[in-house]
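Input (Phosphotyrosine protein phosphatase I domain-containing protein):
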Amino acid sequence: MKLLIVCTGNTCRSPMAEALVRKRLPQVEVQSAGIFAHDGSPASHQAVTVMEEAGVLFAHQSKPVTRERVEWADLILTMTEQHKQLLLEQYPHAAEKLHTLPEYASQEAAAAWKSLQEAYADLETKRVRFASSFSGDPNTLQREFMHAHQHEIAHIQELEASMPAADIMDPFGRSIEVYRTTLKELEFYVDKLAEKIHNEK
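Output:
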């Protein structure tokens, strides 16, 4: 498998994740890149420090996302939903292999996203049906619909509130403690990713 991990500047989160994948999944070919990265910037000092604390030594120089890297990858994992959307806009043909790290690695997160998307779709179907049969004042349509479907709306709000984080926190420019927290997040999801890949063999 060829894995591309993407963040913003390719100096913190994605190189940390890349180093963890190299250690945890030596059979996977892995690269990292940044949507707004320049070639050749070093990893942030705090990233190097927390990785050394975790016993993971790595030398890193930043690289930008390119069409060649997107084509190279079998799987592209982003640090945030925004990164994913930006890549989808630029490389729509890569949609099938493009996910955030949390949604791809965690079955619980994937199941929660699926439930929420299904609830949204179901409510939208009901909204279209309701609008087509509604004969009253158009200004009252939304209020009447929300009143008629308050239980479904409350269910969606509960799902939204219980959603696992879709994004890996950006530690850039923040304290060493924030970097340690980000590393713990990355370790959790890379472990989940390793379990998933092993189980798919």
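The chain has a mean pLDDT of 91.
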